[in-house]
């Protein structure tokens, strides 16, 4: 948990900062002016995709280390048992650098980019669309509206992101005990041949269940903090 906790502020600041500034560049309207002059969904989608693209490269090393540590199955503190491969996140990062080089920390990053770029465009479009639907014109959405819109935006994004998330995780684990896949397309083809179409939706229910409260809280915090700094 230490690496996700350490990285979440950085990753979300990159995502929301790039999104807001890209939207500012596209529409020449500040966050405060967007309720009176709402940007087009095309501009929202482009800004979200831009934020997702840059976020993916910031997230890639942290996400790789998290996945490697979560998939570590050696038992701890048992006499005669083998020692875990990684003793913690710093040791994991150092081991990857030593054994796989700097590029090892970005293993699976293409799948991460493909997961986050269009998905986060849809994420912000869904959020803005729901806020507009349930907010009187020219007014700011209520806290309840922000919570519900943020939660459903999170669910919508994870439904579309799960196939690439599965491939991303498998690519990140590849290299731990030898290379199994020649690349992302080979990983997709091999997974489909061995496990069928259902493999691309593994974990979707859990991801969606987690997405609602996490993204509801994220958007409420985002809107509240921006309102404080007007």
Automatic annotation (TrEMBL):
Q: How does it sit in the membrane?
A: Multi-pass membrane protein
Q: Does the keyword Electron transport apply?
A: no
Q: Which GO terms describe its cellular component?
A: mitochondrial inner membrane
Q: Where are the Solcar repeats?
A: 39-133, 141-228
Q: Which PROSITE patterns match?
A: SOLCAR (PS50920)
Q: Which Pfam families match?
A: Mito_carr (PF00153)
**An MF annotation (GO) of this entry:** transmembrane transporter activity
Q: Which UniProt keywords apply?
A: Membrane, Mitochondrion, Mitochondrion inner membrane, Repeat, Transmembrane, Transmembrane helix, Transport
Q: Gene3D superfamilies, alphabetically?
A: Mitochondrial carrier domain (1.50.40.10)
Q: Where in the cell is it found?
A: Mitochondrion inner membrane
Family designation: Belongs to the mitochondrial carrier (TC 2.A.29) family.
- Provide the protein name: Solute carrier family 25 member 45
Q: Which organism is it from?
A: Cricetulus griseus
Source taxonomy: Eukaryota, Metazoa, Chordata, Craniata, Vertebrata
Gene name for this UniProt entry: Slc25a45
């Amino acid at each position: 948990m230490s690496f996700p906790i350490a990285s979440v502020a950085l990753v979300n600041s990159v995502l929301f900062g790039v999104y807001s500034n890209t939207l500012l560049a596209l529409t020449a309207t500040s966050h405060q002016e967007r309720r009176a002059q709402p940007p087009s969904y095309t501009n929202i989608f482009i800004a979200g995709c831009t934020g997702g693209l840059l976020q993916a490269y910031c997230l890639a090393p942290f996400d790789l280390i998290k996945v490697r540590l979560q998939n570590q199955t050696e038992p701890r503190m048992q006499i005669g048992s083998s020692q875990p491969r990684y003793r913690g996140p710093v040791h994991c990062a150092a081991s990857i650098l030593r054994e796989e080089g700097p590029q090892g920390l970005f293993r699976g990053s293409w799948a991460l980019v493909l997961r986050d770029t269009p998905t986060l465009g849809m994420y912000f479009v869904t959020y803005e669309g729901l806020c507009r639907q349930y907010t009187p014109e020219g007014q700011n959405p209520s806290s309840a509206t922000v919570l519900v819109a943020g939660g459903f935006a999170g669910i919508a994004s994870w439904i579309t992101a799960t196939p690439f998330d599965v491939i991303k995780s498998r690519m990140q684990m590849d290299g731990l005990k030898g290379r199994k896949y020649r690349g992302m397309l080979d990983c997709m083809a091999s997974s489909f041949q061995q496990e069928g179409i259902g493999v691309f939706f593994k974990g979707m229910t859990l991801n969606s269940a987690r997405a609602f409260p996490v993204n509801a809280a994220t958007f409420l915090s985002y809107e509240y903090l921006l309102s404080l700094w007007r």
